[in-house]
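REVIEWER CHECKLIST
Item 1: Sequence provided? yes
Item 2: Single chain? yes
Item 3: Sequence as submitted:
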Amino acid sequence: MVTIPGSAIVLIWLFSSSMEDAVTQTQPSVSGAERESISLDCTYETVASSYIFYWYKQPSREKVIFLSWQHSGGEKTNEAGERFFFNLEKSKSSVSMRITELELGDVAMYFCAFSRDTHNVEIHREP
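Item 4: Structure as written out by the authors:
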């Protein structure tokens, strides 16, 4: 088993769409060995009844890659692949991403983004 180098840490960066909304990462960084699993978690506060969470990945010195979106109404998509699992738990005000069977290519900065769905319009997947 090869360990992902200490300098190659998986990070989460979070942002929200309003001063009334808050998104907080629960861990500043996560690392793991190849073939292990990790979870990236964040909690949120909002008064909005309809909202969307997005996940993005940015490998070092590369463009941001869209991974997933999840709507508070239950609709979601996963473009990251079968090793990536996304979960929105409204009762706990948390959203998480689990990556299984870690690969060196998973080393990146991960972004969790929050947006209010004020118009209940079609969800756009572009950042």
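Item 5: Key structural point noted by reviewer: The mean pLDDT is 79.
Item 6: Recommendation: ____
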